[in-house]
Amino acid sequence: MKFTLSWLKDYLETDASLDDIVATLTHIGLEVDTVDDPGAKLKAFTVAEVIRAEQHPNADRLRVCEVETGKGRVQVVCGAPNARSGMKAVFAPSGEYIPGIDLTLKAAKIRGVDSKGMLLSEREVGISDEHEGIIELPADSPVGEPFAQVSGLDDPVIDIELTPNRPDCTGIRGIARDLAAAGLGTLKPFTDGEAVPGSFDSPRRWAIANDGNACHYVVGRYFRDVRNGPSPDWMQRRLRAVGLRPISALVDITNYVTMALGRPLHVFDAKKLDGAELTMRYARDGEEILALDGKTYRLGPTMTVIADPKGVHGIGGIMGGELTGCTETTTDVFLECALFDADSVARTGRTLNLLSDARYRFERGVDPLSADWGADVAARLIQQLCGGEASHPVNAGKMPDGTDTVSLRPNRVRALGGVDVPVDRQIGILEALGFTVTKRNGQSLQFKTPTWRPDLHGEADLVEEIVRIYGIDKVEPVSLDRATALPTPAINLAQRRASQVRRALAAQGLNEAVTWSFMAGQQADLFGGVPESLRLANPISADLDTMRPSVLPNLIAAAGRNADRGSGDAGLFELGPQYRDDTPTGQDRVAAGVRSGASPVHWADKTRPVDTYQAKADALAGLAAAGTPVDKLQTTADAPRWYHPGRSGVLRLGPNVLAHFGEIHPSILRSYSLRGPVVAFEIMLDNVPQPKSKATARPGLELSPYQAVHRDFAFVVPGPVTSDDIVRAAKTADKALISGVTVFDVYAGKGIEDGKKSVAITVTLQPTETTLTDAQIDAVGKKVVAAVERRTDGVLRG
Amino acid sequence: MELPDLDKLQADLLQTIENAPDLDALEAARVAALGRKGQLTQSMKSLGGLAPDDRKQAGQALNQAKERITQAIEARRTVLDAAALEEKLLTEAIDVTLPAAPRPDGRIHPVSQTMDECIAIFGEMGFTVAEGPDIEDDFHNFTALNIAEEHPARQMMDTFYLPERADGSRMVLRTHTSPVQIRTMKSQEPPIRIIAPGRTYRCDYDATHTPMFHQIEALVVDEVTHLGHLKGCIIDFLRAFFDIPDLPVRFRPSHFPFTEPSMEVDIGCSRKGAELHIGAGDDWLEIMGSGMVHPKVLEHGGIDPARYQGFAFGLGIDRIAMLKYGIPDLRTFFEADLRWLKHYGFVPLAVPSMTSGL
Hints:
The structure holds 2 protein chains of 2 kinds. Chain A has 21 helices and 42 strands. A 7-stranded mixed beta sheet of chain A has the order 30-33-34-38-37-36-35. A 5-stranded antiparallel beta sheet of chain A has the order 6-5-4-7-12. A 5-stranded mixed beta sheet of chain A has the order 15-18-21-22-23. Chain A is elongated and about 130 Å long. By secondary structure, chain B is α+β, with helices and mostly antiparallel strands. Chain B is rod-shaped. The interface between A and B is large, with 104 and 97 residues.
């Protein structure tokens, strides 16, 4: 919402400085976005008198002027055809910057004659494109005074960012009222709205169809024998300053009233209307209107329009029609000053994608009383600027009340607002804002809210008004007291586990990424897909149209982008949501990661391509950090189909799947244009079991004083036998004595029968009662061999 | 038989030992002195020929000499051993400028780090972390927060919608973390003191907006908390977070449908060209929205507004991370560019805490 300082002062009696006004606006919630002081840009230019203008001795088109600047006489060479003795002009001395020609003036000789300054055209000054000649100021312009001030071009423009709850401040007078309430001056009496008598009955009437349309009330007046020329300079200047293009007096008046008072108006060229009645009604499906913005809008049956028997001439509360608009030749005018339902205007405007100054105000809520006084304000201006005669007002419908009754317990200002404001001051603030006290009893006051504040309904609203005007800076900050002497944990177990997993995975050398929660639907299908309910209705792009069913795909894509940038050896993880359905429980917390390329280059070691066992290690590190009993995990080879079917696995506790790991399926990599291998893991954090008790004590540590013994065995087993089968079999040989079994070599090839492999294990025997004898050790060894051979169909390798 | 001049002999032997250039020479000196045919050994053998008194005296002198020589040999051997080892080690020299063996070196994303910092600060003030789903219904995201269907505030939010259901309703991607306020109030009795960090979504993508970003919400509900507490809490938080004890904080009246009174919060800053410096300066930077919870919002949360009141605020995690860590472009947060992650990320052991520092 833009306005100029002088325009504000039409309504506010104040001697406050611009700086004070700007600071106060922000202070009371009317946040100042920018302040543009056009006078500042013109401050080098002053009024000067051309004492003498003579022909240049060496150039036909130039004149040598003697100029009185108020600070002495200066000789200026000027090429303008209208430069002549006795005129008042705009002068810039040498050394000043001329915006219109982007040049800093220098004293110079022009064709042999000294020139120490310049007489300026409008284009040179930078206020228009006019360059026919130099600016000619009125003869009584005071020499030496700033040009901007003399010409009324020094009016600062203030732009405030208006919050949607303040329709009253969509008019400059509303802003003045707020400033007055804040003590920055006095709100001037509103005389513009006094009744303007009519002299005849309007030949046109208003009607509101009984179809439930958005118009509550409408006032009209007929003006005859008007002349619609350009509006006066002062009006044009103000409209331009707030970003509006002057069109003609009649149209400018409606825009001026909209800006000044937040009261949208429309003027019809009455001679272009048909019939005696103009009707507010719902549009018929398919009706069209060529609007004042030059575009044709197709209307629907929920949109309120202004129509005569022949057609639609306005979209209620949004924009008038081009065909019945006022032009230079208009002599008879019919005025529309209406009240529309805010929600309905908002819906229609949104459907048509049509923004206008009228819609901006109606969808926030226009003061109902303005329907009556708005017509008078318009009548006064039309008569002033266009002459003619005004009819008696006509109207239809019923003006809504627009007020509410709200109670305030003055002690609530302290209790909620945290500041003591004397009761008299509370009442004073509310009265200055337009409230009236309707009842006082004991600890409670009752107020009627002003018609221009549809946003105020409850006690909290009144507390806000009081604190806002009194000053939020007067509220003393109070630090929060904690309920307990010492802080208690801020996060629960699941959050703590997530945090630990995040840091554990980074400690594995993976870099944490945050990628979109959405992805391309086509690729989502490769990762299990999603129900239709997870496809966005209005995605930002086709690449991001589906809620991700897995955290992995965006990481794989990221690995691809990094590879394209030359970082082919990537390690990335993300801890975030993935989605099963659109219910509040359809979202899972997952930690997923990818590794691509090879191990880091080091001069002493060969680099190795990333492999499944790294992904498995990552998954296990994450699971351990999440509190999983990793020694109890089983590994199975049934990972989902986005993994390589032969090089992937699942970590589980019985039926409970905790993680997947493995190489990403080559066909998936192809769809991301990635060269493999890429290995990945997904940890389903929500599936990690909760500890059974909150006990912090660990089980007792039993340390045997007897030395452990290690024995190695190698078995030749059929290819499909897993190392897990062998380890489990070995462990069963003597559960009391065997404390560990580890695989230290796997070999297939020369010396081993086709389809078989050699798996070597180390078995650790830990005696607890006495040192083992060779015989005891041999006996256990025989049991290990027997157990493995029996369970795996293998033989001890000779 | 006459004994040799013991003093001279000892001096000669010590001289030889001291001058032994290497272990072999030292061994030769030892044999010459103490070997079976060594000079001292020979002298010991000749003691038998002396008178008993002389024998005792000479024996003592000889034993002392032997002791000294032995010590001298050991001392010299230590020196020569060390020198020999040193010489051997020099032949084993390697190029120590070669690169070290690679170690895992992952980083934590600035969003996670910043969230943890916020949790550390608010945790100290007695807040706990609450969560809610990213996919919300209309009630929790809008209606319960007093955002009416046609209110311009609702239209200003560029909401992502999921497909219309059979009953005409549409789920949305939450446009803010505020729905967690409602979920918390519905599941918890006052006093309530929670923060809710998380992902939020708006249908907007340009230099300063991404379709997904992060917010942290705070909600306090009890019988006594007023606007002064809101100011105190926010000032304490901002000063701790930016680690600027005198950071100017300004509160400006504003409007949000879910709070009444509502305030925007600015922090002091100064700008030099494109460079922004947080702290006391000549300018202000808008950083968050805040206010006292609107009575209607309390009602929607199942809390009696006649008895309870409180405050709420929300701020952009990505944004405060950008400000604190000098990250120029929001869009880069979500690109997973390794160079960026390495540069702006945090080592995993740097866990923020108020006792060890943020």
